[in-house]
Amino acid sequence: AVPLFQPEKCIVGTGLEGQAAPDSGSAAIAAQGGRITYIDAGKITSLADGDTVGTELVIYQRSNSNTCMHQKPRV
């Protein structure tokens, strides 16, 4: 299948676009700032206030709407 149209950026924004990703729960966001000590395809480890905090990433998990969720580490 070939798409018949080119998607374009919306002209009018509501101002809520920046809040949509954190509210959806699909983005892994650190609770507090710190220094990244280790990055892997499935885990991000950071050091904040002397404590090591690990964040597990979702790798190809099925969602309820028959789609697939996959998080990639971007720092």
UniProtKB/TrEMBL annotation:
Keywords: Chloroplast, Nucleotidyltransferase, Plastid, Transferase
GO molecular function, a single term: DNA-directed RNA polymerase activity
Keyword Plastid: yes
EC number: 2.7.7.6
Protein's UniProt name: RNA polymerase B subunit
